[in-house]
Backbone:
């Protein structure tokens, strides 16, 4: 069986920032970062819906 990659909030935020840069493709980002397309899509959706709060850790929100 394969192992599951742990994706931190900071990692998600960096992935979204890469996706927003001109010239980068989602396919290229997911390949380079070794994450699924759905992981990137979900992170991008969270960024749109929640802005700067999307990737805050629970400790910062409490």
Residues:
């Amino acid at each position: 069986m394969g192992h599951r990659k742990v994706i931190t909030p900071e990692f998600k935020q960096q992935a979204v920032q890469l996706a927003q840069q001109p010239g980068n493709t989602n396919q290229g980002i997911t390949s380079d970062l070794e994450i699924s397309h759905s992981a990137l899509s979900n992170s991008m959706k969270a960024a749109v819906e929640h802005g700067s709060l999307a990737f805050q850790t629970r400790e910062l929100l409490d």
Notes: The two ends are 37 Å apart (CA to CA). DSSP finds four helices and no strands in the chain.
